[in-house]
Each structure stands twice: as C-alpha cells, then as structure tokens.
Write a structure and sequence with these properties.
It is a single chain. By secondary structure, the protein is an alpha/beta fold. It has a single domain, classed as HUPs (Rossmann fold, 3-Layer(aba) Sandwich). It has 7 helices and 5 strands; from the N terminus they run E-H-E-H-E-H-E-H-H-E-H-H. Helix 1 packs across helix 6 and helix 6 crosses helix 7. It is globular and about 55 Å long. The N and C termini lie far apart (50 Å).
Amino acid sequence: MSPVNDSRAVVLLSGGLDSATVLALAREQGRECYALSIAYGQRHGVELEAAAAVARALSAHQHRVMQVDLANIGGSALTDHSIAVPVSASTGIPVTYVPARNTIMLSLAMAWAEVLDAREIHVGVNAIDYSGYPDCRPEFIAAFEDLAAVATKAGVEGRKLAIRAPLLRMSKAQIVREGTRLGVDYGLTVSCYQADASGAACGLCDSCRLRREGFVSAGLSDPTRYRK
C-alpha cells in the first residue's frame, strides 16, 4: 500500500466533456489526481486517446487505462455493433445504456483508490442533462459509497472512501461554464457515441445533442469537430 495522503483522488476519465470538467474541479480543490480510463469494448478507442490528452493538459499525477471486455456481454449499442446508435430522442432507458458499466468502473476505481490509500473517487455522472441511465442517479452514487464502506479493508478499518459526483445536479450549460472557467480545452474531448477515427463527432446521437445544447445554452462557442 502507498502511504496515507488525504489529498489523493482517483478520477474516472472517459475523455468526454463531463469527466474532463471533473478532473479540472478536483485539481482546483488541491487533489493529487490519479486519472483512470476504462477500455471496456466501446465502439471506438478515440475517446481513450482524448482521455490521455486531457490528463496531460490538466496535469494528472498519473493516468492509467484498464481493460474490461464488456463487448463480450453485449446488450448495448456502445458495445455491440449490431445494435444501431439512435439518432433521435427516445423515451425510457436507451439502447446506449451499457449494463453495469458505472458499477464496474467505480469498482476498479475503488480498488486502485484502496491501493493508493486515496480518500476520494471523482466521477462525472449527471442526473439532469443525461440519457436516462439508472447508474447516473444520486441513489446509485449513495449506494456505491455505502458498498465501499463494507467492501474494502480501508472501509472496515474506518477510512471511509467518498464518491464525489460534483456534476450530479448541474445542467450541461452549467458544466460547460464551469469547465470554461477552469480553463478546460473542450476541443480535446470526445463525447460522441460514434466518433470516427479522428475524433470527429456525428452530431446526431444523444450525446452530441446534449453537448451541443449545452454550449448553445451557455452562450459559448462549441469547439466540437463534426463530420460533414
């Protein structure tokens, strides 16, 4: 185990707009940030390249990529190429929901945090401008924090692990404004569910729609590169 350092935090970094903002916020709060990205079998790897660029730009203490094969499970348009990514808004939980993704990602972050003796995990889930995913809700974050308290050596010994979700109740416009204040270069980020190999966005999927509306509502220029 690493020596105790209360300033350490594991930050889940997807390479998208929200997680980049979370990393910037954690850094502003004086955290020593250990960025963690997950290669889970998503449609494209360009978001992992974006995550590496964001980690460098925001001076993460370390950036690590872990591998999990959720494509072998399937059940989501983000891991199964036979399921089309929707290009129009839908009701209910969309097919872009990846079963257990946030649970698995937080579990990996929890394991690394315990080894680092970090006291916090920072994650960019959002319960307002989001696609209806069940693992982006406040109830999920609270339940996982309770789990960490009983599932780890650190928790049993009284060193509680906090799950920080600073964007949970913010609109996309508020997130964009906050990240802009912190100097986040959103041109480095990739949010599109079906970005091409260069990182250019489709402009049609739910993630693109929410991102674009966020910049419009914030009254800020959108640096996203869209395919023609």
